[in-house]
Automatic annotation (TrEMBL):
Class of enzymatic activity (EC top level): lyase
GO MF term (any one): N-acetylneuraminate lyase activity
Organism: Hemibagrus wyckioides
Pfam families assigned to the protein according to its UniProt record, in alphabetical order: DHDPS
An example Gene Ontology CC term for this record: cytoplasm
Protein keywords: Carbohydrate metabolism, Cytoplasm, Lyase, Schiff base
Pathway assigned in UniProt: Amino-sugar metabolism; N-acetylneuraminate degradation
Matches recorded under InterPro entries: Aldolase_TIM, DapA-like, Schiff_base-form_aldolases_CS
Name used for this protein in its record: N-acetylneuraminate lyase
Catalyzed reactions per annotation: aceneuramate = aldehydo-N-acetyl-D-mannosamine + pyruvate
Length: 322
């Protein structure tokens, strides 16, 4: 089940249907060797794992889950290239995150993503020096988009990490004039009013709004989001695809009970200190693929906490087969 059909736009002249991004999108982890170097060889198996075990057909590379901001530009380029190459003929979409603190670095990554055949780029706001208003953020996106004008550009809103609390709807107003390649959002905030206002702006233009808080995806679906990007779809993708199907069929009771189960797992994980490092260890155990350690400043967790989370995933979601 890939498409959230209820919220699909048909017949839009602004953006061809084939360009739209729908369904569950895994925000990929970055496989590292035990000495902290890229372990690119894992990516081929990773693609197959997502397709065959999770029924997940699109990826979001070098984002938060991929530790994008902890990687060098060279590493980010190698990852983008490997993901695009391994995904070819298999996955639907490869979205490459190119956000950086320096607009020049983002432009370089955007040009590179275009050169390796990415389907889209996403850009988070710089979060050391932050844009002081929506217009400043639009100008930043404009300069990044201009470096890869042929690639659909998504703004990545993640206020809990960036500390940027701009109204996203304001960022959208008139953006098509400044960023002609703009095609939508990855919205990882919890303000459902702002989310709705973004859907109402994006939908008539044929753009996609992808939701990014896995715990409450069910709250975003009836507001018209087109798909969802998240870390848990790496190992709970099969399970959450069932939630999407239940929602599409109008079986809200089932959809709710599935969403509650993912919430229970994440609430339990949070009580143990769940962060990207623990998440990455969970993925190694669930997939059998060697994701390796996180990169500093993140530190690995003792294996008993990780195993407790995996056990809960097994019991509650039937994920992570033994
Ligand atoms: C901050 C962060 O990494 N958010 C992810 C994507 O936006 C989510 O997929 C979360 O990992 C997920 O919702 C679990 O809290
Ligand atoms: C979850 C997500 O979208 C990210 O890791 O960037």
């Amino acid at each position: 089940m890939r498409q959230v059909t209820g919220s699909r736009v048909t017949g839009s002249k602004m953006c061809p249907e084939s360009e739209k991004i729908t369904g569950l999108i895994a925000a990929t982890f970055t496989p590292l060797t035990s000495d902290g170097e890229l372990n690119l060889e894992v990516i081929g198996q990773y693609v197959d794992f997502l397709l065959e075990k999770q029924s997940v057909r699109s990826v979001f590379v070098n984002g938060t889950t991929g530790e994008g901001c902890s990687l060098t530009l060279q590493e980010r380029k190698q990852l983008a290239e490997w993901w695009c190459r391994q995904a070819k003929g298999k996955l639907d979409k490869v979205i490459v995150h190119v956000g950086c603190l320096s607009v020049k670095d983002s432009q370089e990554l955007a040009r590179h993503a275009a050169s390796v055949g990415a389907d889209a780029i996403a850009v988070i706001s710089p979060s050391f020096f932050k844009p002081r208003n929506a217009e400043a953020l639009q100008m930043f996106l404009k300069d990044v988009g201009a470096a890869a004008p042929q690639l659909p550009l998504y703004y990545y809103h993640l206020p809990s990490m960036t500390g940027l609390n701009l109204n996203v709807r304001e960022v959208l107003e008139g953006i098509e004039k400044k960023v002609p390649s703009f095609r939508g959002l990855k919205f990882s905030g919890v303000d459902l009013r702002d989310l709705s206002q973004c859907v109402s702006y994006c939908r008539p233009r044929g753009w996609s709004v992808l939701y990014g808080v896995d715990e409450q995806l069910l709250g975003a679906l009836p507001l018209g989001v087109n798909g969802a990007v998240g870390s848990t779809y790496n190992y709970a993708g099969f399970f959450m695809n069932q939630m999407l199907s239940a929602f599409e069929k109008g079986d809200l009771n089932l959809a709710q009970s599935l969403q509650f189960k993912l919430q229970d797992v994440l609430t339990f994980a949070n009580s143990l200190g769940f962060d990207l490092a623990m998440n990455k260890q969970v993925m190694s155990l669930c997939s059998g693929l060697p994701m390796g350690p996180p990169r500093l400043p993140l530190l690995p967790w003792p294996s008993d906490s990780v195993q407790d989370v995996v056990k809960k995933l097994q019991q509650d979601l039937g994920a992570c087969p033994k």
